[in-house]
Amino acid sequence: MRPYVAMALAFTVSLLPATTFASPTVTVLQPFDPMLGQLPESITSDTAGNLYFSLGGTLSKFTPERQLITLATIPAPPGAATLGVKVGPDGFVYVVTAGFFTTTPAAFVWRVSQAGQVSVFATLAADGIPNDLAFDNSGNLFVTDSALGQIWKIDRRGNSEVWFADPLLLGDPDHPVAVVRALGANGIAFDQSEHNLYVSNTDYGRVLRINLHHGKAQSIDVVAESELLLGADGIALDVRGTVYVAVNAADRIATVSRSGKISVLVEGAPLDAPSSLAFGARCSDRNTLYFTDYAVLRASGAKPGIPSPSLAAVPVPFPGLDLE
Fold first, then answer.
1. Residue 322 resides in a domain
2. What are the pLDDT digits (tens) for 179-230?
3. Is position 163 within any domain?
4. How far, in Å, CA of 267 to CA of 253, rounded?
5. Residue 295 lies inside a defined structural domain of this protein
6. Fewer CB under 10 Å: which end of the chain, C or N?
């Protein structure tokens, strides 16, 4: 069977009821030990086939040969969380930290070289929770702030400004998914034309679309909102404009079409609080969706069961967009 025919068939099957047809097979590439604090949060890829992800207070690298390397330790204060990661157009890896359980300022964007050298790239509002990040074609960096309900824009020199803020980006203080505090804007990704910027909202289970004109935000609308998306974390887009959503609170990866139709790609074991998604960037794995199983809910005792943090992968019918 030709591969494109197989992909089309796989896509058709994914739209049919899960009770009748099996979900795609999830492959665990690298398990981690929660007893050692090994809870991978965010993931990204590069064109050489490397995967980078935040693991505790480190930036780790998983090579095509399946070697696990600690690239750098991020010097954030104790109690800070190491969250979003992306490879920039300059080849450096950018990492976000935020303060969940510390009063020491921890809202930074760090820049890490391939040799493991770490420096502060940008300092953001201390009362915010910078979370995920995306680059545009001009090299500007956009960072969601889950606490302040806004998106930061950081230029190539590290100068930051509030690019966009809206009530739709705020969390729900009355019913926070994370219990400890409200979390709004989370995952972020541009579409292929960069006319739209997609953002997930964790507490409300939303996928939002910000329309851009010459790089400026013009409007924001809700593409999808559903209980199926409650706990939405990282997102990624394929070449057809389908949004893949890591639904952290539900052990689920869902898809949202451009028209707002929601489908479940995979859910249940071995997924354990998937938090971030990234398509492979090589020709050989463009149809592979990599993700991190954060396992934070079971590790913290908020959800019953043995935590199973991991780096995992699942085949998808269409290639992902380039991250740069």
1. no
2. 778 999 999 999 999 999 999 999 999 999 999 999 999 999 999 999 999 9
3. yes
4. 6
5. yes
6. N
Name the DSSP class of 24. Answer: P
- Given a contact cutoff of 8 angstroms between Cβ atoms, the answer to whether 179 and 203 are in contact is no
Domain that holds residue 210: 3-315
Percent of the chain with pLDDT over 70: 92
Q: Domain containing 43 — which CATH number?
A: 2.120.10.30
* Band of residue 15 on the pLDDT scale cut at 50, 70, 90: very low
Q: Are 86 and 93 in contact (CB under 8 A)?
A: yes
Amino acid at 79: G
SS3 assignment, position 303: coil
Q: Are 288 and 305 in contact (CB under 8 A)?
A: no
**Residue 96 and residue 108 in contact, taking contact as beta carbons nearer than 8 Å:** yes
Q: How many residues does the structure list for the chain? A: 324
Please state the domain count of the chain: 1
Q: Is 205 exposed, middle or buried (0-12, 13-18, 19+ CB in 10 A)?
A: buried
Residue 224's nearest CA partner among 244, 240, 250, 194 is: 244
Query: Which position has the token pair 């992909």?
Result: 7
Q: Which two tokens stand for residue 299?
A: 């590790």
What's the rounded Cα separation, in Å, for the pair 215 and 192?
A: 14
Residue 241 has pLDDT above 60, yes or no: yes
For every residue of 25-66, DSSP letters joined together read: PPEEEEE--GGGT--EEEEEE-TTS-EEEEETTEEEEE-TT-
Contacts of 310 (CB under 8 A, 6+ apart): 28, 29, 30, 31, 32, 40, 270, 272, 292, 293, 295
Measuring CA to CA, how many Å separate 136 from each of 227, 232, 243, 254? Answer: 31, 22, 17, 25
Give 45's pLDDT tier (boundaries 50, 70, 90): very high
Record the tokens describing residue 48, joined without a space: 């050489």
* Coil, strand or helix at 290: strand
Confirm whether 320 is domain-assigned: no
